[in-house]
Amino acid sequence: MRKLVTRGLAGGLLAGAIALGGMAVAGTAQAAPAGPQHVVPPGYEFYDDYWTYAGCREAGLSGKAQGNWREWHCEESAVDWNLWVLY
User: Fold this and answer.
1) What is the DSSP secondary structure assignment for residue 42, as one 8-state letter?
2) pLDDT in tens, 53-78
3) Which of 10, 35, 44, 74 could lock onto 56 through a cystine, CB 3.0 to 4.6 A?
């Protein structure tokens, strides 16, 4: 009787470990959800990148006031802000 209980317990633990292992593999195979897609307006060209939105905005406004470009657009990236301009 004792051998049957030991075998049954060991078999149950092994089956549980296999099931959990299969779930872990299935969990790692899933793709990460896609983040929001940023779109730069058509015709704009990359000018420079800035650590803050305020720095990007200031450069955009300054360039427009000086007549360097007609319009500007600050786009957030993973680590900074990109200034896109329309000449």
Assistant:
1) T
2) 999 999 999 999 999 999 999 999 99
3) 74
